[in-house]
Amino acid sequence: MNTQSSDLQASSALLNYVAALENKDIKSVAPLIGHHTLVEIPFMRPNRLVGQPEISKAHADIFEALDSIDFVLGTPLEKDRFAIAEGELRVQRKSGEEYTHQIGIVAQTDGEILTRISLYADARDIRMWSDRTIL
Amino acid sequence: MTPTQAFEAYCTAFVNGDHIAMADLFTEDGVFEASSIEKPLKGKEELRSQLRIIAQSSKNISTDIRVAIESGSTGHFEGVYEAEIIGTGGKIDGSPHRIDFKFVAVVEMQDGKIARLTEIYDTRPFHPEERQRMWNINRRTPYWNKTVDAKCKEWSVYNNMHFPMIYSRTPYEDYCALLEGVTLWDVALERQTQLKGPDAHAFLDYLCCRDMSLMEVGDCRYALVCDENGMMMCDPVVLYPWKDTIWLSHGNTDLTLWARGIVMGSTWNIEVSEPDVAPLQVQGPFALKTLSKICPASLAKMKNYTCLVTQVAGQDCVVSRTGWSGGFGFEVYPLSSDRASELWDAIMEAGNEFGIKVTGPVIHRAIERGVTDLNYYMNSDMNAFEDTGGKLVNIDKPADFIGKQALQNIDASGVKRHSVGLLFEGDVPRLEWFWEMNDGNDCTGEVRWAIYSFELGQYIGIAVVDNGIGIGDQVFVSHPNGVCRAEITTIPFVKRSA
To answer: Which terminus in chain A has less CB density within 10 A, N or C?
Structure first.
């Protein structure tokens, strides 16, 4: 892992976001999100969510649909404002189904704010985490 | 080589379709895994063979690495991949089916080579969001659940049954599975018209315009069935598994009703029925090794177009050396569908070591090999001479047969159309209904098949045309996306695989 002190923000933001998801804590997500933040989640429709209203709404739906969210991530690699990690995502829906996904996750930051978080996973044949389209 | 250099080289080789260069970037036991492949590829041999199929499934490929981060022997990348899938015929609006996605890739290096390359992306952009929904008007095959589990996405209707056609791979992947490996197809919709009784053989000869009188138990024949006007109804594969029992394994026609109607009230001493027999096709060069593991019969000694009664996976079956692939393979006809799932699982397990894949009919290969017919149906107004050039019409055979007088009259007055191959210029869409064509003058025809040929690298077709159109002529074909030129050629388009 690249440990230059000026490059730590992106991986920290990535891990903070992951922790907020695992804790299903909408209040912890909010401080990471700016007005123009892009969140890409293949399990949402649309899978590109922009700005606080869409992102908050989407995460409220995610936390409503999922009983548990657990990440098992390798150490993120970081450079400039970017961090990338790979690992597994295990989710259990409130309806009982459990899924394990191989994932990649990319964070891009500007200061303390996430400008982009992109979750990579194959969502084929998987019911979306929200039945509605986030508008 | 650093992880970034290695991944850039990999992307460049991919864009160039150079699978050898791609595989050479890996260590001897290097591993490649990606969201759209079923299991990781390991070792240079598997990497070479499978990366070739992956790379050559698409065209106009581009990659863009947007973020590259490395630390020691590990690299993490984010990028974009864009390509067009070859051979689908494109979308209804004329645009190509595309494989466009963003990805994360992880590269782990060892001694300057890639020890592991993992690509993670969402495959939904290039697959239907869900499988086609069905209605209960048509019958399911007994393998329905298995085909759904195998990710069938698109069905047709055939003999009032759902016909699994397209699974979640590119056409070239299915094509390679058939030519280089082994494939399992659910063809339970090929229904058997069973003729049983002392007159079974004679009645078969009466139904078919080909001379069937020399058939013996254990034989199979490809035959044509016409109506009383000599017009094509279907082209069954006839199996003679037992004395006094004959199956016409037929296409998309109510052949059993036709035969029963003829027998009803007649003096023919037979029963006509549709038994509970749901065949599977096991096709490809490893079909023999696959079936031999679960079948005690000497399948290797079977000649083309023969059948025998045996057991497969402990179930009573008829096995024939037939199929719709234009290559090597078998059809397995279980004598009951009560244990259909067990039979399916046993074949899949037997073929696992050969990489067996569940596919629909590989139309690309069937058309290349010219194994198909002209796609006729009841009232399609096509006589038996037009379909095969008369090769399967024995108008002088001693026995009477349905349509004999009509076909003799057609022969005497001169057949007016014939079957030809087409080499299209440029891309054409998927053929959803027949296309009109002409030679720019008075001669016309009808395109009844059109598909991309992977061996020839262009779209090909089969048409019935006026006799005034001959080999080498240029014609104009009107399809839903416009008009294109095509050259008339012979069928088959390619030779049989070694």
So the answer is: C
